[in-house]
Amino acid sequence: MDKWSLMTIAVLLGLTVRWTVSLGSYSGAGKPPMYGDYEAQRHWQEVTYNLPINQWYFNTSDNNLQYWGLDYPPLTAYHSLLCACIAKLINPDWIGLHTSRGYESQPHKLFMRATVFIADLLVYIPAVIMYCCYLKETSTKKKVSTALCVLLYPGLILIDHGHFQYNSVSLGFALWGVLFLSNNWDLLGSVAFCLAINYKQMELYHSLPFFCYLLGKCFKRGLTGKGLVLLIKIAVTVVAAFAMCWLPFCTEAEQILQVLRRLFPIDRGLFEDKVANIWCSLSVLIKIKNIISPQTQLKLSFAFTFLSLLPACIKLTLQPSLRGFKFALVSCALSFFLFSFQVHEKSVLLVSLPVCLIINEIPFMATWFLLVSTFSMLPLLLKDGLLLAYIGTTLAFLTVCTASFSIFEKTSAEDLQLKSFSLSIWGYIPWLKPFPKIVKSLFLVSITLMGVLSLSSATLNPPQKLPDLFPILVSVVSCLHFLIFLMYFNIVLLWDSRNSRNQKKTN
Amino acid sequence: MRPATAAFRTVPAGSPLPVCACAVAPQRFCQGGCDMAVAAAGGGSGGWFPALALGVSLLKCLLIPTYHSTDFEVHRNWLAITHNLPVSQWYYEATSEWTLDYPPFFAWFECALSHIAKYFDPEMLVIQNLNYASHATVLFQRLSVILTDTLFIYAVHECCRCVSGKRIGKDLLEKPMFVLAVLLLWNFGLLIVDHIHFQYNGFLFGLMLLSVARLFQERHLEGAALFAVLLHFKHIYIYVAPAYGVYLLRSYCFTENKADGSLKWSSFSFLRITLLGLIVCLVSALSLGPFIVLGQLPQLISRLFPFKRGLCHAYWAPNFWALYNAVDKALAVIGVKYKFLDPEKMQKAAMTGGLVQEFQHTVLPSVTPFATLICTVVSILPSVFCLWFKPQGPRGFLQCLILCALSSFMFGWHVHEKAILLAILPLSLLSVQRAKDAGLYLILTTTGHFSLFPLLFTAPELPIKILLMLLFTVYSFSSLRTLFRKNGPLLNWLEILYLTALVPLEIFCEIVFPLSPWKLKLPFIPLLLTSVYCALGITYAWLKLYVSVLTESATVRQKAE
Questions:
Q1: Structure pTM?
Q2: Predicted ipTM of the assembly
Q3: Domain span at residue B377?
Q4: Which terminus of chain A faces fewer neighbouring Cβ atoms within 10 Å, N or C?
């Protein structure tokens, strides 16, 4: 079968799963007074359609910021406005100022689901297809398998089409950025990434690798000649792209400052709900939120994030390579997720995206990580009534990954890209010999643990003394996984660059 | 290729379909030991079959929250009836309008299910709880369909073993057995009819495919027993019973042929026919026995064959009668316009008005159940004769089975559009074997599946049906084209044009029409267009298959001579 039929089939499968998930429940369905993210998105349509642009981010009599006030960058707001214009054509009740609050109906759900579906279809899916087609040194079959696995990644599907958000837009733009950079179209790549940041500020998790990679590229060309020209070009492009996005808000400084205050709410605390990051997990033992002042918390989290980012960023700047770039995206996003301030459980998607990009290089570890990342959002998904979709999509993803990459046969140190690392410590740790078997059994243990925890949190009632037992267990287990993954990704990244340098020397 | 073309010279010059005979040689059903095929299935990337089966089962699980039709309530009602009432009242109970109208085995099946159902939600087992559909009920009923499909999966596995695995060295995606597994397991029609619309066709087709596979493996008695059981699960399969009867009689009870391939009367085996008869009687006794003892057989028969329903189902199945009705309607309109007919005398018959199923023909003569029966029998006869006089082993049987299914679909009384699956699924087995059948399969499946679209009319399911249909169609076209790329194009330009026109038809019916002013005046137009347009394609496929079967056997015989 030719490449395009296979690719079409992969895309159609992805789309089918997306739409079936979207038939299910959404966040805050029928739960007044606050509802959930679905109502937030609808409310933003209402606000952006009915209010002048300079009131969008301000608390006014018509815009109560306590009730799902707009707290995403301008592109999200424009997108909401666009959706609102279409909604107006179909049924003006959906976006009536004040009157539409908490509006829910089957046709409206259909409309909202369709907006996500179309956004996904226009931004994210083409990027995935293009990315997989441009993969180097891979057979057609591998390219299609990669595309299928990426498109079936359950986390993104469940959050966007189940819980209800538009992550695929920002992630899609970021993916376009990676795609352009890997084809050496640095300026286009920067523009795409600027769009991503201006759609969701969380994309800043990815900003350091982008910055370091481009900077490293400039260094490589020599900061006095071509490199400088490139640097200036990129800088101008980025500034221009930002200016374009923020143009309507540039009327006065107060506007911009207010938007920034809305985007970075430092008064919201170290973490929210049950996140699988280090702070939430530690607070099982120590109540950090109560012991340390918010200001110190902020500094502490900044320090930790910075330290954990540092090695990857330095490596990338000194030796910018495409492969290193992808791994740095993973490890930086993961560091942000684990250590930074005010992290949502959904932010793990920002780590998952770059992991999806390296699924063809390290299928075993990538699959494992992607499963854990979906599992880490379990409490949220249960709250939204997406248990069935969670089970179905996760198992389907595992099946597809197992069938197309035969992951269980790729657990040797070489397959995990740990060859150079293990060579360098071979003399010190002799027990590494049965490595593949150990890794495989660890994987099975981890999967069983996740399965048991998923089932028990779905069916069992927690003991009365510990009402949050299962969510906390889920986040602690996922957090432990993530810490190990952070170490793993850093090791691969750091040892790889040393290895390639050695190779260059010998060459 | 050379020997095949040499054998070809015997084909008469005027024969319309000579090209594909050479395609038979490399891939045909292996009739005896299937060991090679098993080795091919097991070796190499062996995990593909479980992955395919698991994948589609998970997709079915994702379809649980989709829309379900009144058939859901039908089966819930049957669960309640069989759970609460003694056997003697099963076929008398009429609280709900959806009375039990399947044969006894199916009733026992529901009875067995109901004993699990009580752990999900006992309320669904109360007969008076009409239209009861709690979350647990939906979950239970949907899961029961998904789990009983295991039998279908097993049957598909057995069918794949019957496909010769001579192309071992090739890419997995280009192996006939892989293609067959996908075409059967991921069949669009079965997915939407069972897992969205809601019915239990999966395990029933599983029984049928399993019995076909057993016949291919020369385990005739097992095949016969399976089919007998199937008949007592759902009597619609009686349409293909002639194929079974004649094949078993001709190729199993007669152990030898004469040198020229004709019947050798002396080889008749009384032992074999006794065994067959015993099996059929035993199964029937198990199923009908209790009701005969209770003296309820007439009541049971009247429930199973409700001839009071109209010629066509609420939505016309795309068969001969759809064309007949359309011509009648067209003549009536033309007649009124040019004053041939008196509009006063004509009744405004509601053609597609849901429960109103009586349809008065205005110009052409009205059709009686008896007339349809005659038409069906006449249309089936040639294929059965062909099976008797020119036996070609299980292949010929399968062709006859498909022709029986298609013919009864074309002319039967009150045919449901879902009945087209009865022809599509067995034809999948043939399609991966020969280019000629592959072309036919593409026409029949694409049209037949498209004609199932009106089953799902709710807005949220619209994307699903289109996506699944595209998925299946893209796969079937590209995989079969790859499989037979040496045989040139599978379809001619006219067929391609016809199939492509389904796209604008769908756009018109689902998007343009609801926005147009005709929606209120002529609400039945989309259904009418769909069924008439699909009827053309299905009639064409039926005729083409008939011609190919009848002419092909002539060539094969000549070759033998």
A1: 0.90
A2: 0.92
A3: 48-68+133-309+368-559
A4: C
